[in-house]
Amino acid sequence: MKRAAIFTAVMVWIIFACIRHTATLGLTIPLPMTGPEAKFGQIQKRSYEIAAAEINAQGGIKGKRLVLRFEDTRGKPEFSKEVAKKIIDVENQAILVGEYSSRCAKAVAAVAEERKVPYLVVASAADDITQGDNQYVFRQNVPNAHYTDGLISFIKQVVKPETIAIIYESSSFGSSGAEDMAKQARVNGIKVLASERYEKGAIDFRQLLLRVKAASPDVIYMVSYAADAALLMKQIKELKIYAKLFAGNAAGFAIPEFIDWARDAAEYVVTATLWSPKLNFPGAGRYADKYKAIFGDYPSYHGASAYSSLFVIKDALERADNWTPDDIRTALKKTHITTAFGPISFEDREGYRNQNFMDTFVLQVIDSEYETVWPAAYATKEYVYPIPVWRERR
């Protein structure tokens, strides 16, 4: 009798353990949780967690509760590569998502392609991530070549400059962003007077900026992450460098910390962006308000893309015949979904493969707040142009 009771208890425990195991879906996400890109990793992590909570509140994915786990890659490609191998080879995960910088995304993409496991990129912009023959790499955010579509339109129609100077950091993102802007400038008859490259994390831009000042461009365009973006504008103000427009290529110019750190030097700066909390995409406002209520600031486009990516994965998994890498890849390829980040579908065109294309926008710092100013149909405030020179500002 005692043995029977023990046997029954053991069987019940095994059954419940199996239920718990089969009723969850684990997803490990590589992110920079420490190091210079940790701020972006934090924004993404918080956004993934908000999305997972919402998905689970709605019944999970095919009845399975989504359980997230995060691996710190420190913003270093060698760590990203090893984490990706572990996720696939040890954890047997059939889809990858995550990372921030382009160099880390490329490391993950190489592993995913080699092992034939789909990888959804959500924030990395270097053009070559989705160029070439990769079959298993999908990108939700637009590539660098399209980051500035909205900004170029604004510059052409509003500013109408004759000259531009480009300042960029020494990364895949910085280099490709600078190259794409130089190409756009040539196409639109804008002369590039200076193209200044700097090492990421520099603490003094004065000599570089004095060269730019001597060139006297109509537009100063910068491709930088957060700390560099703020320092550039503070030193531009200090040196009293004037241009018709100060513009950023998203990234460090499009997160709340830029305004916090640059302070009044951020005023009237415009930046390309892929998203704004005030856009009328389904769920965008709800997500943004929830994020702000919990963390005190609105999220950047990096967070919105991370948040939405879990709904893209949910959609693909619910349509996939089986949860094998190839079936999930096939389902991703057929994606047509509108998210809080915007419409998502993966196309092969313009030399890209499995690439999502979408409108991009222009934000301007007005009264220490980001406002969407372009395209006009999405504007939350009218743009300020011409911008006042430094001595005329309060």
Structure write-up:
It contains 13 helices and 16 strands. It is an alpha/beta fold and 394 residues long. It folds into two domains: 194 residues, Response regulator (Rossmann fold), CATH 3.40.50.2300; 161 residues, Response regulator (Rossmann fold, 3-Layer(aba) Sandwich). Helix 9 links the parallel strand 8 and strand 9. 49% of the residues are buried.
Question: Secondary structure elements and their pairing?
Answer:
Blueprint: H1 2-22, E1 24-31, H2 38-57, E2 65-72, H3 77-89, E3 96-97, H4 102-115, E4 119-121, E5 137-139, H5 144-147, H6 149-159, E6 163-169, H7 172-187, E7 191-198, H8 206-215, E8 219-223, H9 226-238, E9 245-248, H10 256-262, E10 270-273, H11 284-295, H12 301-319, H13 325-333, E11 337-339, E12 342-344, E13 347-349, E14 352-355, E15 361-366, E16 369-374
Parallel strand pairs: 1-2, 3-4, 4-5, 6-7, 6-8, 8-9, 9-10
Antiparallel strand pairs: 10-15, 11-12, 13-14, 15-16
Strand content: 15-25%
What is the ordering of alpha helices and beta strands? HEHEHEHEEHHEHEHEHEHEHHHEEEEEE
Measured as a percent range, the helix fraction is: 40-55%
Query: Tell me about the biggest sheet?
Result: 7 strands, mixed
For the biggest β-sheet, the strand order reads 7-6-8-9-10-15-16
Number of strands: 16
Query: Measured on Cα atoms, how large is the radius of gyration?
Result: 23 Å
Number of helices: 13
Provide the CATH superfamily of the largest domain: Response regulator
CATH topology of the largest domain: Rossmann fold
Q: Structural class per helix/strand content?
A: alpha/beta
Q: Uncertain spans, ≥5 residues at pLDDT below 50?
A: 6-21
Shape: globular
